[in-house]
Amino acid sequence: MIHKNWWKYLGVVILLYVLTVGMLVPLKPGISDIDPSSVRTGETVTFKVWGYNSKFAQAQQPTRAWLKLDDERALSAERVVVKSDTMLEVEFRIPPYLPVSQKVQDFSLILDNDVDGPSVLPSAVFITQDSVDAARGEQVWVNNPVQDLSNVSGMTFPFRNILGETIRNTYFHVALWLAMFTIFIAGVFQSVQYLRLRTPSRDHWAVSYTTIGVLLGILGVVTGAIWAKNTWGAFWSWDVKQNTTAIALLIYLAFFVLRASFEDPEQKARVSAVYNIFAFAALVPLIYVIPRLTDSLHPGAGGNITFGSQDLDNTMRMVFYPAVIGWTLIGVWMATLLYRVKRIQEKLWDVY
Amino acid sequence: MKLVKEIVWLLHKDGLLEWRSGYALGGILLYVLSTVYILYASFEKIEPSLWNALFWIVILFASVNAITKSFVQESGARQLYYYSLLSPISLILAKIIYNVGLLLVLSLLSWGAFTLFAENAVTDNGLFFLAIFLATLGFSITFTFISAISAKANNNSTLMAILCFPLIIPIIMTLINLSKMALDLKIKANIENDLYTLLGIDALLLGMTLVLYPFLWRD
């Protein structure tokens, strides 16, 4: 039993691992907000800074803070007052001139202590200059570059500002999507085999895989919509990726309508195999080419780089890759169950 | 060489049938002209963005109507005759070429009718013609193949619509982008990107059609 079905157990074990680790591992401490976020030059400002998952009060050494201009130049804080684990008051003395020739310059806030490790809020503060003079800015600039950052070990997922805890959806939305594609490819392969060999079992396999692919696709869209609600603000915002996905699902629903309109089993199997291959070919430009040419909110479209290339760190990889394999294995398992139901129906009731 | 001969023979046959009955072309002309007239009567002055949408809606539905007939008109007996005479590749290629011609005539006539009744909203005529050509290519490949599929099932026109519209969306999305540029609704940028995408989709679908039709044509 375990010899023959080892991959099913593997799939279940992997998914349990993904669910526990993916849900329980905490996010890395980060900065959730800063107030005020816009100041003028020549002021001494006390910023209120809110941390996420942070332990400011438990740090052994005082928390350090910088406003970073670029890789070489940063201002360091005059004073850091810890109010609670998740709140700080940071005082910066903004020089009267900035060493840049723009009127408004954005600065990233960097915090560092020995418990939380370094955390960054990109473009946290916008400083407006009263008058632009880069040369005088260079003279009055007191440079305190960001250095000696503490190294904190421990298993955490990265903190991204808009994403927050929803970063865990990577293991569901993205993994389900990749599993769906694997299953669809398996379905197309079975359709090709049907056209070559003309054995009814190949048709059963093709339909089973395609059905499960559609199921995974619907789950992918639903998880994507939930993610969109939390990051873009609406479940469905008529984004090009959402539209093309809806159309892709329509193409596959048409597959089932097509099958329903045939009486003769051989003709049904043959025509639907032909359509399945054709539809898959039409799906590739729809999913992978069109969104790249259009503006989109979704990563991996309209010149956006994909999520994975930038934000997937090694801890996430340790969950994400197993998640893809796990969902695929469970998908294949469900497809084999469907296949067996079809075989039994054929044997018992002569229903094709 | 045999392929070319067969295709020319089939094109001649389809052209002759059309010439004698005038059924497809006449019906579609009537459809296009009456649609354009209704548009003119209700809008009088058509904005370029509306012009763009209406033009492609007219073309899309006229194309579906025109191409649905391509396999239905072949009777069972004639199909048997084809099996013994022709290769499937030449049959589908002839149908596609014939439909490209038909759709090209149809779209240019619609463009003419739009110009006559409303006005020509197109500012870059060359680009718009190119868009029309690539569109007719993609429409006729997809619709011809789908009409071959739906001819196998008996409930034709409904199935045709269900199968066609989702499959044609990638072509339409790229096309609308191109024609927006031709109508000055959008800044011209990366035209060749859209052209290559459209050409690539057309080539992909043509390749799939040629590979798959031999499995489909014969019961």
TrEMBL record, chain A:
Q: Please, which domain of life does this record's source organism belong to?
A: Bacteria
Q: Which GO terms describe its molecular function?
A: heme binding; heme transmembrane transporter activity
Mark the transmembrane ranges.
7-27, 171-195, 207-228, 240-261, 273-290, 319-339
Q: Does the UniProt entry include the keyword Cytoplasm?
A: no
Q: Where is the Cytochrome c assembly protein domain?
A: 168-293
Q: Where in the cell is it found?
A: Membrane
What are the protein's UniProt keywords?
Cytochrome c-type biogenesis, Membrane, Transmembrane, Transmembrane helix
In Pfam terms, one family for this protein is: Cytochrom_C_asm
Q: How does it sit in the membrane?
A: Multi-pass membrane protein
Q: Name one GO biological process term.
A: cytochrome complex assembly
Q: What is this protein called?
A: Heme exporter protein C
From which organism does this entry originate?
Answer: Flavilitoribacter nigricans (strain ATCC 23147 / DSM 23189 / NBRC 102662 / NCIMB 1420 / SS-2)
Automatic annotation (TrEMBL), chain B:
Q: Which UniProt keywords apply?
A: Membrane, Transmembrane, Transmembrane helix
The protein in question is named ABC transporter permease
Q: Where is the signal peptide?
A: none
From the UniProt record, which GO molecular function terms apply? Answer: heme transmembrane transporter activity
Family to which this protein belongs: Belongs to the CcmB/CycW/HelB family.
User: Native species of this protein?
Assistant: Flavilitoribacter nigricans (strain ATCC 23147 / DSM 23189 / NBRC 102662 / NCIMB 1420 / SS-2) (Lewinella nigricans)
Intracellular or extracellular location(s): Membrane
Keyword Transmembrane helix tagged: yes
GO biological-process terms attached to the record: cytochrome complex assembly
Fetch the Pfam families from UniProt: CcmB (PF03379)
Protein's UniProt keywords contain S-adenosyl-L-methionine: no
* GO cellular component annotations of the record: membrane
**Which residues are listed as membrane-spanning?**
21-43, 49-68, 80-106, 126-146, 158-176, 196-216
How does the entry describe its membrane topology? Multi-pass membrane protein
